[in-house]
Recover the amino acids of this structure.
């Protein structure tokens, strides 16, 4: 009988300590949180959240090392990965007032091209986004922006 009571007490203590440890590990979402980019659609959705909703989670891991952004306008410009990440970090929490439409143009096992259209009140921004499968993680490798 004493052995049964000791066993029950030990199990209860283990359960309580496990719950206390589990409760202690729940922390608020931080900027350094990692987003699982194991599918092209998840990576594309994360990219759209970054550019339209000011989401800053996983910026460094979302873009390939050789990422480039081309902006086609009167003064065509090109931005590298470092410049784009720096800009997007400054835009953290800023939500754009626009309607967003995303359409996949082409998709294969290791490559995807998508068209992201952002309809603002006075103009439309179209972003052709290229994503690649980089060793099991999908990343944005390029972006071409046009404005109408």
């Amino acid at each position: 009988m004493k052995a049964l009571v000791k066993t029950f007490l030990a199990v209860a203590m283990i359960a309580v300590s496990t719950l206390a440890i589990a409760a202690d590990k729940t922390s608020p979402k931080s900027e350094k949180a990692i987003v699982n980019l194991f599918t092209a659609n998840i990576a594309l959705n994360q990219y759209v959240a970054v550019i339209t909703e000011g989401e800053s989670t996983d910026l460094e891991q979302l873009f390939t090392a050789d990422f480039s952004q081309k902006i086609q306008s009167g003064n065509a410009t090109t931005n590298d990965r470092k410049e784009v990440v720096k800009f997007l970090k400054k835009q953290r929490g800023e939500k754009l007032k626009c309607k967003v439409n995303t359409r996949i143009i082409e998709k294969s096992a290791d490559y995807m091209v998508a068209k992201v259209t952002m309809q603002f009140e006075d103009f439309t921004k179209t972003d052709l986004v290229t994503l690649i499968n980089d060793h099991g993680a999908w990343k944005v490798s390029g972006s071409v922006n046009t404005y109408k």
Remarks:
- The chain has a mean pLDDT of 77.
- Strands lie at 63-72, 77-80, 99-107, 111-119, 124-134, 137-147.
- The two ends are 82 Å apart (CA to CA).
- The longest helix spans residues 2-24.
